[in-house]
């Protein structure tokens, strides 16, 4: 899959997003609600304003942010000015808000936490996509190194940044890693047991560290190979060995500075864990109109 082959960015079903947002609101409101807002802001007060970008980035998480306000009061009118996947600059509005002030002020932090975090993931992904694009066909993909409870939202944020998704969990693909190989007694028995235990629709990927291991994986008909921590020269040799027989994925210490050389080796996918586990947030804030 190349970046141009990515599926359209459809919204996640509310059924998936609401439990995350509801849990965050409950965590923040605690046992008695927003003491500050309830004491200071009259019940009839209204708020008009916007969530505004403080820095440049790629937007993601507008649905979660909007839902935070709606769950506290459906009367809050939410207009998304920059949909997910949009680039935004400093001072530009992302979401415009109008409605009961108490609900907007009480939901503010949860909405911003989710929007800033997910926009950070999208922006980090976009930086790698941009760095890799001139050098090859490789798609940037994420891993399972996600924030507990936020996987679906963070993986969608990767797509908002122009990347693609690796497996979502342990149940949708087989990925045989080095510890699996060690326990199974080698690559060949590991692949054979995986094929015997998995259904005919399940893909099998094998992590390899050397070209000799790659040769074993190819001989057993692996659907994909994860070329772990190989330098550009070995990656190029590995791609030549694979010769289209399997999907090639490079992984290990991928940064904006190194991704170009990795892409130039000709791999199909480049996976990076840091775009979900260590991406810095994008600074956004709520301003009164």
UniProtKB/TrEMBL annotation:
Could you name the domain of life of the organism this protein comes from?
Bacteria
The keyword Chloroplast belongs to this UniProt entry's keyword annotation: no
* Classification via Pfam families: QRPTase_C, QRPTase_N
Q: Which UniProt keywords apply?
A: Glycosyltransferase, Pyridine nucleotide biosynthesis, Transferase
- Pathway(s): Cofactor biosynthesis; NAD(+) biosynthesis; nicotinate D-ribonucleotide from quinolinate: step 1/1
* Record CDD domains: QPRTase
Name the enzyme group at the top EC level.
transferase
- This entry's Enzyme Commission designation comes to 2.4.2.19
**What InterPro entries has UniProt attached to this entry?**
Aldolase_TIM, NadC, NadC/ModD, Nicotinate_pribotase-like_C, Quinolinate_PRibosylTase_N_sf, Quinolinate_PRibosylTrfase_C, Quinolinate_PRibosylTrfase_N
**Quinolinate phosphoribosyl transferase C-terminal domain span:** 121-287
Residue ranges constituting the Quinolinate phosphoribosyl transferase N-terminal domain according to the UniProt record:
34-119
The protein's role, per its UniProt record: Involved in the catabolism of quinolinic acid (QA).
PANTHER family named among the record's database cross-references: NICOTINATE-NUCLEOTIDE PYROPHOSPHORYLASE [CARBOXYLATING]
Family per record:
Belongs to the NadC/ModD family.
* Protein name in UniProt: nicotinate-nucleotide diphosphorylase (carboxylating)
Protein's organism: Methylobacterium isbiliense
């Amino acid at each position: 899959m190349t970046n141009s082959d990515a599926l359209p960015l459809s919204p996640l079903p509310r059924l998936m997003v609401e439990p995350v947002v509801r849990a965050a609101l409950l965590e923040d409101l605690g046992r008695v609600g927003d003491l500050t807002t309830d004491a200071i802001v009259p019940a009839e007060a209204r708020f008009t304003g916007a969530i505004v970008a403080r820095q440049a980035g790629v937007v993601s998480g507008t649905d979660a942010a909007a839902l935070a306000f709606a769950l506290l009061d459906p009367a809050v009118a939410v207009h998304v000015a920059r949909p997910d996947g949009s680039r935004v600059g400093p001072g530009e509005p992302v979401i415009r808000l109008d409605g009961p002030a108490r609900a907007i002020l009480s939901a503010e932090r949860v909405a911003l936490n989710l929007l800033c975090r997910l926009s950070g993931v999208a922006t980090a992904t976009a930086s790698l996509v941009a760095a890799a694009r001139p050098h090859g066909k490789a798609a940037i993909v994420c891993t399972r190194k996600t924030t507990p409870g936020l996987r679906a939202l963070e993986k969608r944020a990767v797509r908002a940044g122009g990347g693609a998704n690796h497996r979502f969990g342990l149940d949708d693909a087989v990925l045989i890693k080095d510890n699996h190989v060690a326990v199974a007694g080698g690559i060949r028995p590991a692949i054979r047991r995986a094929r015997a235990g998995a259904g005919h629709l399940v893909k099998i990927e094998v992590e390899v560290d050397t070209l000799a291991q790659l040769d074993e994986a190819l001989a057993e008909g692996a659907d994909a190979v994860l070329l772990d921590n190989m330098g550009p020269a070995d990656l190029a040799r590995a791609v030549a060995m694979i010769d289209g027989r399997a999907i090639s994925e490079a992984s290990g210490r991928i940064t904006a500075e190194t991704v170009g050389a990795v892409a130039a080796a000709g791999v199909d996918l480049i996976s990076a864990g840091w775009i979900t586990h260590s991406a810095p947030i994008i600074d956004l804030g709520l301003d009164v109109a």
